[in-house]
Write a structure and sequence with these properties.
mainly alpha
Amino acid sequence: MTDSPEGSNDAGTGPADAPRAGTDAPPSAAANLFDLRTIIAVLFLVYGIVLLIMGLVSTDDADRMKTGGSNINLDMGIGMLVVAVLFGAWVLMRPLKPPTPEQLAEAAEGDRPLGH
């Protein structure tokens, strides 16, 4: 076997500072990006902005009479924006963490799924 290049591990498969199998690797950005909470937050944000704009721009007296005098688009738009902020805060406060090897072994032995 030839000398491994500087900065690689013993097997020559990558840099020496790369996480090894069975160790805690940092969660990937893709896993956090496609977290269901993030997707829900973005959907609430988009729909909330649309309803907020519609409530500010295109509500007339006939629309208010249908809803009992309230501007329902504006109210629901603000509510959806609040929910989007709450989901976003939840994602930031409790990011996804990959299961540890101990948790995986425990889940394989028992009948309880991970996270329960």
